Amino acid sequence: MIFTALIAAVSFTLAGSAFAASRPVVTQDWFYIGGHYIETPEGQVLTGTMYTQVFTPVKVTHRYPIVLIHGGGGTGATYEKTADGRPGWAYDYAGRGFKVYVVDQPARARSITDASVDGPLVRDSVKSLEQRLTIPEAFDLWPQAKLHNQWPGTGKPGDKYFDAFIATRSMTLADNATMEALTTHALIALLDRIGPAIVETHSQSGTTGWRIADARPKLVKALIQVEPNGPPYKETSYVGPPDYFGPEKVGRPWGLTNGPLQYSPAVADPAELTFVQQAQADRPDLVKCWMQAPPARTLPMLQTVTILMVTTEASYHAPYDHCTSHFLTQAGVKHDWIRLATLGIKGNAHDMMLEKNSAAISNVMANWLVSKGL
Length: 374
Description:
Elements: E1 2-5, E2 13-14, E3 17-18, E4 26-40, E5 43-57, E6 66-68, H1 89-95, E7 100-104, H2 115-118, E8 121-122, H3 126-134, H4 160-166, E9 172-173, H5 176-194, E10 197-203, H6 206-215, E11 220-228, E12 233-235, E13 238-240, E14 244-245, E15 249-252, E16 275-277, E17 290-292, E18 307-311, H7 321-330, E19 336-339, H8 358-371
Parallel strand pairs: 6-7, 6-10, 10-11, 11-18, 18-19
Antiparallel strand pairs: 1-4, 2-3, 4-5, 5-7, 8-9, 12-15, 13-14, 16-17
Helix pairs in contact: 5-6
């Protein structure tokens, strides 16, 4: 299926906002990748496939394409439009001359979803979206939440932007390890098909980013981790003031991921890894990080990949993304980390690609790629 999206040719709308007029001219295509057959009581079925949409600018000016991978509860629509109907990051990058691949993770949206095969599904409640994404300042669950001011509209049900946004949210697998494994396999298949590429993840898909870079370091020309799922090893919970940080539980037994990474010395089972927590946090508004107990193993495959982490000012990641950076450094993985507030880009929460200043943020990442010769 191929069609050409011309500027102002068709005016799609989201909550009444004009969309087509400012899109770059691109050719769009789509295909499915990955998947495997399994036997069920009803017979053989296919699972694990991944819907992949392709945005090709009329003039491609960059050698490597960008693969955009959405986060938990989201779909590829995350990168097509902002919450208030402006062109999303897929069009921002295409406008800079990048060919762009946008996926719907396996067991999600336009990819095959079958709870009887892949496991139970969950969905977001309105309150959970308000707390984490649209109006975290109203709940004050973590120290930086009150700095949020970039969501368009009220961020509540009945607001046209919120209603349009929540309509894009998808059922997703309840088990993070299964979700990570399915997406990792499909994305490896995608890279094996399209060749070297820039991989950009967000949130839940961050664990998949580490794993595909670990498995195919020569095919991942750069890995951009936009607030990757974290922090390492144990999950952080938020309880509001005065303590803010609540009970922890193991979330990523391999440190950065649910599934295996290639450590040196080698690790066959995550039980071989030993973690210790900082005695004191770097700052009062940050969590105490879990690190490897010395002597720390290294991550040799990730050491060969060009890596960027991006963190906003007001996200629930703001209290703990430094832990991911510390973990990478301890494992010998050089990386860049951009805290957007240091560039004057302030007030964003976790779904920054949907917020009012989304284009300024994609511009930061595109400029970083150019600085790396990509």
